[in-house]
Amino acid sequence: MAVKKFVLPEIAESVHEAEIGRWLVKEGDYVKKEQVLVEVLTDKVNTELPSPYEGYVRKILVREGDVVTVGTPLVIITDTPDEPLDEEGGAVGSAAVEEKVVEREESVEAVEAAEGGGNGRPLAAPAVRKLARQLGIDLSKVKGTGPGGRIRKVDVLAYAQRAEEEKPVEAPAEPAVEKPSPAEKVEVVRREDLEEIVPIRGIRRKIAEHLRLSKDRAVHTLHVDEIDMTEVVSLRKKLKPYAEEMGVKLTYLPIIMKALVPALKKHPFLNAVVDDEQGVIVLKKYYNFGVAVDTPDGLIVPVIKNVDRKSIIEIARELADISQRAREGKLELEELQDATFSITNIGSIGGVIAYPVIDYPRVAILGTHRIKKMPVVDDNDEIVIRHMMYVSLTFDHRVLDGAEAARFTRDLAYILEHPEVFILESL
């Protein structure tokens, strides 16, 4: 009997681990070659893994919700349905042959890491090892909470926090304010008959980890402004019939995205990322905008690239396509990478003001809100009805001061209040 173990392949160069989302087969099923076995989640992308073999699913080795590293065995497939396997999944009997398959993309190091390694090193993904080095933490002292004792980022951060809290406090030269004691463990009152348990899994877990990192690293500060969108409303009304002839539904967001380009060119520190490892700010000379999309699985931020080189119609068409595929879980990994600035459009749902969380390592995110008719006093001291919109700019105060944020939103307001400015620039 041939026994084959299918391992987690290297899905992309920068991906070292994946979460098991949903098994599409069960033990005992007969599968054909290239039949999809399992859905996995990597960096907010759902990826289907096909079987490289034909045969019977004898043993599923990882559970839904488990996070595993590249090279970890996922499932055992054999060419017979009922011959016994030993505890490690091998065939029983002297004539049995076990074939462990390592995908060609994998390195020996990846397989060793997945199995605990041959050098006694703690089990941890490369990104976790990098974080530990940055914090000066010995991984051998960290207890892993992942499958098989794997050390996760949250374990390293928790260890660092405990180490900081346990440091002896030197007596101050002068009286100091009493330091509050560490928070006690929170006891959750349970009423199981009136509750439903929802595991934090999949995209929701990825979102939680990313937002926690953003809050830990960036110094979040909010600036709110209002923009007179009357001219943009009029412009969109005129352009909608032409867009529909080209098969495009024109919304306000592509127009706002196009207006952002000249504003960001004037304020380059907003079109940037922070490299905390190197201690530098990286100013981007290209304009890739991450746009938050509400999906059934959680918030996804696909990236519209080279916005400065595209027309409003091109942006609208690409935005509709990438948003739809985000909701269907069909995005490619590269479509979520290399954003230079972020936008979240809350106005389509409602509300007045929001405080968006920065998509770290980017330094700013713009929230656009509902466009409403409001009474406004014009330059002639007359009350007129205008289409007004609030914008919320969350920025990293380590990189930007409040005055610069205010100047940026004022320049963006001027461009949107005079849309001929960026239309002329685009010609």
Tell me about this structure.
It is a single chain. With 427 residues, the protein is an alpha+beta fold. Helix content is 27%, strand content 25%. Strand 14 (293-295) and strand 15 form a beta hairpin. Helix 6 crosses helix 7 (312-327) and helix 6 (252-266) crosses helix 8 (402-417). The longest helix is centred in the middle third of the chain and has 16 residues, at 202-217. The relative contact order is 0.11. The model is unreliable at 94-104, 106-119 and 174-178 (pLDDT under 50).
Give the secondary structure arrangement, pairings included.
Layout lengths: L1 E6 L9 E7 L6 E2 L4 E7 L2 E6 L4 E6 L6 E3 L3 E6 L18 E4 L7 H7 L11 H10 L17 H13 L36 H16 L2 E9 L1 H16 L6 H15 L5 E4 L4 E4 L5 E3 L1 E3 L2 E3 L2 E2 L7 H16 L13 E5 L18 E14 L5 E14 L5 H16 L2 H7 L1
Helix pairs in contact: 6-7, 6-8
Q: Supply Rg.
A: 27 Å
The residue fraction in helices comes out at 25-40%
Count all strands and give the number: 19
Overall morphology:
globular
Our measurement of the CA-to-CA distance between the termini, rounded to an integer number of angstroms, reads 69 Å
How much of the sequence is in beta strands? 25-35%
The average pLDDT value, as a whole number, equals 84
In DSSP terms, counting alpha (H) and pi (I) runs of 4 or more, how many helices? 9
**Unreliable sequence segments:** 94-104, 106-119, 174-178
Summarize, please:
By secondary structure, this protein is an alpha+beta fold. It has helices spanning 108-114, 126-135, 153-165, 202-217, 230-245, 252-266, 312-327, 402-417, 420-426; strands at residues 2-7, 17-23, 30-31, 36-42, 45-50, 55-60, 67-69, 73-78, 97-100, 220-228, 272-275, 280-283, 289-291, 293-295, 298-300, 303-304, 341-345, 364-377, 383-396.
